[in-house]
Write a structure and sequence with these properties.
CATH superfamily of one domain: CO dehydrogenase flavoprotein, C-terminal domain
Order of helices and strands: EHEHEEEHHHHHHHEEHEEEEEHHH
Distance between the termini: 47 Å
CATH architecture of one domain: 2-Layer Sandwich
Shape: globular
Helix content: 25-40%
Mean pLDDT: 96
Strand order of the largest sheet: 4-5-8-6-7
Number of strands: 12
Length: 346
């Protein structure tokens, strides 16, 4: 690990000022950053520890009916907050499907949004990777691509985004609150993570010196609480990243679908929401045929990055149909023993 300077600011303005220095990284729980530093993948010259900053650890119900979640709220605290889990059940289900109980007790909301890909070529510091070193090439292309992208990828990067949490948040139109040298601003979560294009090193909408202060869910998100599920298919039933996941939510009105939300994880370098598929469900009765049509639209244009991950396209269609079926059946009173897993759903 590279030697670095350690700074622990006492206020948000102090943190932003420290973060403006070149080659600086913000540290919260460090569940991703520290691993990357140990492996020589991330090599910041200075660390700004934001864990003691005031005002970033609250879960607030807003006057307009929305919810604001501070960036330093722990994943487990958010998942087990009774009011939050009741209002946004698929978000709680996604949180409990991620990592292990020990990591959820440490990991933060802001850190979850800032997770970097788990592509093995990215985390191997000796493999060529355009995310680590622009212009170096992509070692994944033509090699082991089973877990890699089938949507939104480019010849410069075929990695996927690892977060469970972000998938239902994208479906619910979450907004990221950001503080930086130029003041405060907000970015829709759908626009926060970047697809690789020609510059896979540009991972998020954050500018130099900026940090996440909170996540905000709009009032409309609560309308889906009665029919919302998160489904995750993974290689083992705990402590594994999604091969494919889906967040599905509906409102039902007189036997027809009034509104729909559908987003995927494991398909692209950002959570993949498909509004065309959502629109195709509106006005139709909940049915396998309607779900299959929406799933086909959702995967229209998907392309495998090799023979090894062509299966993900059909798998994603089936996961979407299953997630929509479960959502239409209604949100369970309790999250299953194996949250988000098809093996934990009766």
């Amino acid at each position: 690990m590279r030697t670095f300077d350690y700074i622990r600011p006492a206020s948000l303005p102090e943190a932003v000022a420290a973060g403006q220095q070149p080659d600086t990284a913000y540290l919260a729980a460090g569940t991703n950053l520290v691993d990357l530093m140990k492996g020589g993948v991330a090599t910041p010259a200075r660390i700004v520890d934001i864990t003691r900053l005031p005002g970033l650890s609250a879960i607030e119900r807003l006057p307009d009916g929305g919810t604001r979640v501070g960036a330093l709220v722990r994943n487990s605290d958010l998942a087990y907050d009774a009011a939050f889990a009741e209002t946004y059940p698929m978000v709680a289900e996604a949180l409990l499907a991620g990592a292990s109980a020990q990591l959820r007790n440490a990991a933060t909301v802001g850190g979850n949004l800032m997770q970097r890909t788990r592509c093995p070529y990215f985390t191997d510091a000796v493999s060529p990777c355009n995310k680590r070193e622009p212009g170096a090439g992509c070692a994944a292309l033509g090699h082991a691509t089973r877990i890699h992208a089938v949507q939104g990828w480019s010849e410069h990067c075929i990695a996927t985004h690892p977060s469970d949490f972000c998938v239902p948040l994208v479906a619910l139109d979450a907004v990221v609150e950001i503080a930086g040298p130029d003041g405060e601003r907000t970015v829709p979560l759908t626009a926060f993570h970047h697809l690789p294009g020609d510059h896979p090193e540009r991972e998020t909408a954050l500018r130099p010196g900026e940090l996440i202060t909170a996540l905000r869910l709009p009032p409309e998100a609560a309308a889906f609480q009665g029919n919302a599920r998160y489904l995750k298919v993974r290689d083992r039933t705990s402590y594994a990243f999604a091969v494919v996941s889906a967040a599905a939510a509906l409102t039902l009105d007189g036997g027809t679908i009034g509104r729909a939300r559908l987003a995927f994880g494991g398909l692209a370098l950002k959570p993949w929401r498909v509004e065309e598929a959502e629109a195709a469900l509106v006005g139709h009765a909940p049915s396998p045929e309607a779900y299959a049509k929406a799933a086909a639209l959702a995967l229209d244009g998907a392309r495998p990055t090799g023979e090894a991950n062509a299966f993900k396209i059909e798998l994603a269609r089936r996961v979407a149909v299953r997630a929509l079926t479960l959502a239409a059946a209604g949100t369970p009173a309790r999250i299953p023993a194996l949250p988000a897993s098809p093996f934990g759903i009766v």
